[in-house]
Amino acid sequence: MFLVDFLEIGKRKYTQLRHHLLSSDIRFPAYYRVVEERNSIILRSDIQMYPNPETPLGVYMPYAHHVRHTFCRLMSMKPPPTAQDFPLQFQIVDGLDGSGSHTVYDQSNTNTDTKSFILFCFRAVKIIRNSGRELWKNNTLSSPFAQRPIFLLAAKENEANIKRFMDDLINTDTDHMRSEGFTLGPDQQVRVGIV
Fold first, then answer.
1. What is the DSSP letter of 113?
2. Can you count the helices (H) and strands (E) in the chain?
3. What are the residue boundaries of the V(D)J recombination-activating protein 1 RNase H domain, all occurrences included (predicted)?
């Protein structure tokens, strides 16, 4: 998927690369399987307009659903845990960043102004067994590929807007998150107990 999505390699180039690597006994799945897998993990139906009607431009994905989906994807890559491993604890860290303090450069090739965006993300830190041993750990926490976006807003980064958007997010998802088993730990990490 990395080759197809992030490096923007099309079907023809991917197939050529696949056949070339196959001669060295390196096996990649067929292009259509990569596309099927990509389509199965992209939650397009869950992306919606930001819940506050006063916000003109913004997209949002339900936090609890996105965290649970990420957990399930991570677990699908691991051997199944044993009964004594449960309940599992999924530790994530969330936060937001705006582009209000970015320097604006005059660029002739684009008329995009990026000084008015706010992005809220979370990243998976680790999955811990009931015994306290790690089942999975993210070794690339600072990588942009480790970030999972929750909302992106076209708004000025200032204290009032950040407070308002965080209140919107918390008020929209808090009850649902509690029903899903989310708690906030003393170290400010969101913990999800998976039974």
1. -
2. 4, 8
3. 93-182
